[in-house]
Amino acid sequence: MRIVFVGAGYVGLVSGTCLADFGHDVVCVDNDESKVDALRQGRIPIYEPGLDDLVARNVQQKRLSFSTDLGECVRTCDVVFIAVGTPSRRGDGHADLSYVYAAAREIARHIEGFTLVVTKSTVPVGTGDEVERIIRDERPDADFAVVSNPEFLREGAAIEDFKRPDRIVIGIEDERAREVANEIYRPLSLNQAPILYTRRRTAELIKYAANAFLATKITFINEMADLCEAVGADVQDVARGIGLDNRIGRKFLHAGPGFGGSCFPKDTRALAETARQIGSPARLIDMVISINEDRKRQMAEKIVAACGGSVEGRTIAVLGLTFKPNTDDMRESPSIDIISALVEKGAKVRAHDPEGAEQARKVLPDIEYADEPYACAAGADALVLITEWDVYRALDLTRLKDLLAQPVICDLRNVYKPAEMARRGIRYYGVGRGELR
Ligand code: UGA
């Protein structure tokens, strides 16, 4: 089967490469020539564990290639995935669909023979209908079907998530599409991944509902963490205690500095906006968005309190800047708001991140960057852990304490054990670990 991905960004590149690895013939098309050139030379523009090897293997075996010529690729393919960006629109927070619609128009001009057009980008309900209308307007004679096939990849674990998904969701309006979709995902169904066929609008909503639910779960446990601090309880045990109930589940119950990244903040805003426009407000999601926004400022206050009420003229060492580990992605990372608030309050911030420093310099240009965690801590008045990279889990705590000017650690991901910190004479502030305060 010959498959084209429009957009060689995160989703297109990972999904395209994985489908090539399953034996399909895949071309990833992007209009950014420098990106396509880099990919052709084996340089991967994003950090995703294992992706460089997988791309190299499939390029070498001639199942995967890169191109800027969308027309040529579409004319000869059976399936074209739209995997372009849908950033938040300035002003109303709605998803900006201009790239999706531009791709649909361009695809329409080149369709030859029955072609499946699949929206992989996260798009609001009804976008599939609009894509279909655009293609039909542009080329009334074209033989095609538009399918919604949202992705559920997590950055940092995207290859595993693609190859062993919990489910594949496919929204169709045309029965011919089912056969082609079955063919695309046959290798995955051999891994026993359930394929859920549904209507197109439902598939589009499933994507937003999944992300909004996970964001709600995180926000719920973050509120419980505040309550734990107030009443002297431990949120880690609360999460375990409720999570062992299968109806609740243990995942996505880690209290922290609030959710960030390229998906949850954008998708919750877009869902809330769709709901508002349609006259069926999603009040819970509105609340989740607002609580999560407040949380970052609240974390800065927590750090100020740990420093005795002021950070004016103090040096704060920050470990971890990306929105989560195993990515270099800084998009909507809580670290941005937390650090900006600290700087506003007069602190001098020195930070370390294993992979994210280059991206971080673009959004946080005025802070200092250290090459390794101990250099980051040296002479600082407090150490703040914002992102739980593995390398921070086994740091030499005696050395850290000796390096810090004040033995203060704010652990916004609950990586360390409060009892151990107390034993070492470190003033330790976790999230929702009330009994030790
Ligand atoms: C998320 C979803 O998990 C994927 O299923 C989805 O495909 C993807 O969005 C998308 O829409 O493309 P991702 O943004 O890569 O994936 O990251 P997550 O691992 O979900 O984490 C998101 C944020 O929530 C991070 O800031 C993370 O630190 C935070 N988080 C996560 C918590 O604070 N606590 C938790 O228990 C889990």
From TrEMBL:
**Signal peptide location:** none
Residues that, per the record, bind substrate: 152-155, 207, 252-256, 260, 324
Q: Which residues are catalytic?
A: 263
Question: What is the organism field in this record?
Answer: Faunimonas pinastri
Residues that, per the record, bind NAD(+):
30, 35, 86, 122, 155, 266, 331
Keywords, ordered alphabetically: NAD, Oxidoreductase
Q: Which residues form the UDP-glucose/GDP-mannose dehydrogenase C-terminal domain?
A: 317-418
Question: Its Gene Ontology molecular function terms?
Answer: NAD binding; UDP-glucose 6-dehydrogenase activity
InterPro entries, per the entry? 6-PGluconate_DH-like_C_sf, NAD(P)-bd_dom_sf, UDP-Glc/GDP-Man, UDP-Glc/GDP-Man_DH_C, UDP-Glc/GDP-Man_DH_C_sf, UDP-Glc/GDP-Man_DH_dimer, UDP-Glc/GDP-Man_DH_N, UDPglc_DH_bac
- Known NCBIfam families for this protein? NDP-sugDHase
Protein family membership: Belongs to the UDP-glucose/GDP-mannose dehydrogenase family.
Q: Give one GO biological process term.
A: polysaccharide biosynthetic process
Report which reactions are catalysed by this protein. Answer: UDP-alpha-D-glucose + 2 NAD(+) + H2O = UDP-alpha-D-glucuronate + 2 NADH + 3 H(+)
Please give the pathway this protein is involved in.
Answer: Nucleotide-sugar biosynthesis; UDP-alpha-D-glucuronate biosynthesis; UDP-alpha-D-glucuronate from UDP-alpha-D-glucose: step 1/1
E.C. number(s) listed in UniProt: 1.1.1.22
Q: Which principal EC class is assigned to this enzyme? A: oxidoreductase
Specify the protein name: UDP-glucose 6-dehydrogenase
